[in-house]
Amino acid sequence: MDIYEDERTVSRADLAAWLRQVASQVEAGQVFYGAAGAVAVADQVHCELEIEQEGKDEYSIEIEFSWVNPAAEGEKPAAAEGEKADAEKAAATEADEEPETESSATA
Fold first, then answer.
1. Whole-angstrom Cα distance, residue 58 to residue 61?
2. Which string of DSSP letters, residue by residue, matches 85-103?
3. Which secondary structure element, helix H or strand E, spans residue 80, and what is its range?
4. d(CA 30, CA 45)
5. Total-model pTM
6. Distance between CA atoms of 63 and 18, rounded to whole angstroms?
7. pLDDT at residue 94 above 70?
8. Which residues form a coiled coil (predicted)?
9. Three-state SS annotation for 15-51
10. How far apart are CA 31 and CA 55, in angstroms?
11. pLDDT per residue over 27-86, tens digit each?
């Protein structure tokens, strides 16, 4: 699902300034887009850089970043929470029980 897309032709200097602006926003943890949109950037980001020659005299550079929504990272599905609670309960029960030991006598 696309949230926002912008395409235009700019000077090399304007492109560099835009990349610096995006880099500053990524570093701050939030990238702004459109009139009032923003997206939070996670602490860990997957990055891809692709450089292609598309013809004899045409080149392209594609930069892609992807991450999991930082707000969603803390959320866990109910089933996973239930499994964790079951595991913690089982561990607590085992800790309360006296372990069985075998003694051996040496002659």
1. 11
2. HHHHHHHHHHHHSPPP---
3. helix 78-96
4. 13
5. 0.63
6. 13
7. no
8. none
9. HHHHHHHHHHHHHHCEEEECCCEEEECCCCCEEEEEE
10. 33
11. 999 999 999 899 999 999 999 999 999 999 999 999 999 999 878 766 655 555 555 555
